[in-house]
Write a structure and sequence with these properties.
The protein is mostly helical. It contains eight helices and no strands.
């Protein structure tokens, strides 16, 4: 993992999750998720991914960023499945192995169990810090207790 690419990964993660870099840093998962993504893409696709991520995040205007996402990422048979997985990784704390057709299109070898990109929960912290519960205004069951009597208080949104 290259530290120079970290800011691009973080800005791109902000864009696809709608959470600030401060919130994402607060999960403690930025480096883990970046390493997982880079391992899944391999050195062949990394330059293209970071060029695309930079293209998405460099315009200051949110409308322009959305336009780049719509025209460059969504129609891409190579990068849209990766972005979809990255969104799921942030929100659910789980990476799903990319489809066989993706590996055929990229020429990359399908990962074996234990290799980057194989799938699964990358760390116990990924379950705890997944964004889905935070988005719902809830706590991760069994990991972030809400406190005694909290069941009687309506959720705050």
């Amino acid at each position: 993992m290259n530290a120079n690419r970290r800011p691009v990964f973080l800005r791109f993660s902000e864009e696809i999750t709608a959470y600030s870099s401060l919130d994402l840093e607060g999960t403690g998962m930025v480096d883990t998720y970046q390493a997982l993504l880079e391992g899944a893409l391999g050195s062949t696709l990394l330059p293209s991914f970071y060029a695309l991520a930079s293209a998405v995040t460099s315009p200051g205007d949110p409308v322009q960023r959305k336009d780049v996402m719509r025209t460059k990422v969504l129609p891409s048979p190579i990068f849209w499945p990766v972005m979809s997985n990255l969104i799921s990784l942030w929100y659910l704390g789980n990476w799903t192995m990319l489809p066989d057709s993706w590996y055929a299109a990229t020429g990359l070898k399908k990962p074996a169990p234990g290799e980057p990109g194989f799938g699964g929960v990358p760390s116990p912290q990924a379950y705890i810090e997944q964004l889905s519960y935070r988005t719902a205004g809830a706590h991760t069951p069994g990991a972030k207790p809400t406190g005694y009597g909290s069941w009687s208080i309506p959720p705050v949104f």
